[in-house]
Amino acid sequence: MGHSIAREKILTLIKGSKQPISYAEIKESMGSSCSRVTIYRTLIHLEKNQKIRKFSDAQAEFRYLVHPIAEDQKLTLSHFQCIRCHRLQKLDAYPLPENLLKNYLIHSVHTMASGICKECNEKGL
Ligand SMILES: [Zn+2]
User: Fold this and answer.
1) Cα 86 to ligand 1 centroid, rounded to whole Å
2) Is there a single domain that holds both residue 81 and residue 52?
3) Cα 66 to ligand 1 centroid, rounded to whole Å
4) How confident is the model over 82-100, as pLDDT tens digits?
5) In what side-by-side order are the strands of the sheet with 110-115?
6) Which of 15, 63, 93, 124 has a C-alpha 20 to 30 A away from that of 9?
C-alpha cells in the first residue's frame, strides 16, 4: 500500500472512530494491507502535521484522535477510562483557571481520569 493511500485510510479511520482509537485497533482494521512500520510512520506523519493528536490512556496505551480545531476543545480535552471494562468516554470541556492562562502560553491540556464507569458500578463489578 502506498504512503498516501495508507495516510488517507488511517486518517479516515481515526475520523470515523467514536472514541480515540488505539494502535491495536488501527492495525486490526487495516489488516494485512498495511505493515506495522507503515502504520507507525503514518501516525507520526499525521501527528507532525497536526492532523491528529495522541495521548496515553489509563493502560499507558496511545490513543489517537482528530486534532481538535475549536479553541475550547483545544484547551480542555478530557477522557475517562474505566479500569474494569477499559472503555473510554469523553468528558465535558471545562474552563481553565485564570491564573494558568495568564502565566503560561498553553497549547493544550489533556486530562485522563480513571475509575469505574456507571455500567460497571451498577453491575457491581
Ligand atoms: Zn466499565
Assistant:
1) 6
2) no
3) 24
4) 999 999 998 887 777 888 7
5) 88-90, 77-82, 110-115
6) 93
Q: What is the structure's pLDDT at 113?
A: 92
Instruction: For residue 111, give every residue at least 6 positions away whose Cβ sits within 8 Å of its Cβ, in sequence order, or none.
Output: 76, 77, 78, 79, 91
The structural domain count of the chain equals 2
Instruction: Give the pTM.
Output: 0.77
Say yes or no: 78 and 46 in one domain.
Answer: no
76 and 110 fall within a common domain = yes
On whether both 84 and 103 belong to a single domain, the answer is yes
Cα of 81 vs centre of ligand 1, distance in Å, is 8
The three three-digit cell numbers of residue 47, written as one number? 501527528
Cα of 88 from ligand 1 centre, angstroms: 9
CA 121 to centroid of chain Cα atoms:
24
Mean pLDDT by 10 residues, the chain (125 residues): 86 93 94 90 92 88 81 70 92 80 80 93 86
Strands 110-115 and 88-90 come out as unpaired
